[in-house]
Specification:
Largest sheet: 7 strands, mixed
Radius of gyration: 18 Å
Number of domains: 1
Distance between the termini: 33 Å
Bound molecules: zinc ion
Low-confidence stretches: none
């Protein structure tokens, strides 16, 4: 482990999103002595063919607990409904308060150009919540906390304009990543016809090819975070 302990918070729209888009990265960090927290803004409870949403929500939360355990992460749930996640001050302050409580150093979330409204809203909520959490002038029960790392993750439902800036080699924890996904009936093929586990395995292989390793997972920086200002070209001092 490096001298500094990191704490990754992954904010996902539906139980399962955080794990598919960042499970490998989370497992790699927790296995190297760092901390991680997974936050699900909704359970993603409306997609089941036979179970009513209330029952499926309970199942999804149990699956999320099991997946977080596999990844070595803590898990938190916000009480919003699948497909009805709003972007408003209530949810933004709830997440900001959680950021002040949990004190992550890095926040990962959805890229906003998505086919799913909840994913877009989660991206917007996470961005604002991180900003509110960091502002001392915003008085809440807990003092301000700045999570200075902020990145978007790769998710098949959020593809438009997603361009990876960072490739993380997850080869050593690939099996853990797959095991975490397998905790969900959704990903085992029982709920949706989308081949989740095949897709995310293949994506990790493809990203691994590009990163010259076996398996990789990627992140994208917010616009502007790639801008560097100084007396010379970064990495090429005068
Ligand atoms: Zn989702």
């Amino acid at each position: 482990m490096s001298d500094r302990q990191h704490h990754i918070m992954v904010v996902g729209a539906h139980c399962g999103d955080a794990e598919v888009m960042a499970g490998g990265i989370v497992a790699k960090y927790t296995r190297n002595g760092h901390k991680a927290s997974i936050v699900h803004l909704t359970a993603g409870e409306k997609g089941h063919r036979t179970l009513p949403p209330e029952e499926y929500a309970e199942q999804k939360r149990r699956e999320a607990q099991a997946a977080a355990e596999v990844l070595g992460a803590d898990v938190y749930f916000l009480p919003y409904k699948d497909a009805e996640l709003p972007v408003n001050d209530e949810v933004i302050y709830q997440l900001a308060d959680l950021i002040r409580q949990v004190k992550p150093t890095i926040i990962l979330t959805h890229w906003k150009e998505s086919i799913h409204k909840d994913h877009t809203n989660t991206s917007l909520i996470a961005e604002d919540a991180r900003f509110y959490a960091a502002l001392p002038a915003i008085k809440r029960e807990l003092p301000a906390h700045g999570a200075w790392g902020f990145f978007y993750c790769e998710n098949w439902e959020d593809p438009y304009g997603y361009e990876p800036d960072i490739y993380v080699d997850i080869s050593e924890v690939f099996d853990v990543y797959v095991e975490a996904m397998q905790q969900y009936e959704l990903f085992r093929g029982g709920v949706s016809s989308f081949r989740y586990i095949d897709y995310y395995k293949a994506l990790a292989v493809m990203r691994g090819c590009l990163a010259n390793c076996q398996y990789a997972q990627t992140l994208m920086r917010p616009r502007g975070a790639n801008v560097q200002k100084g007396p010379a070209i970064p990495g090429y001092p005068l």
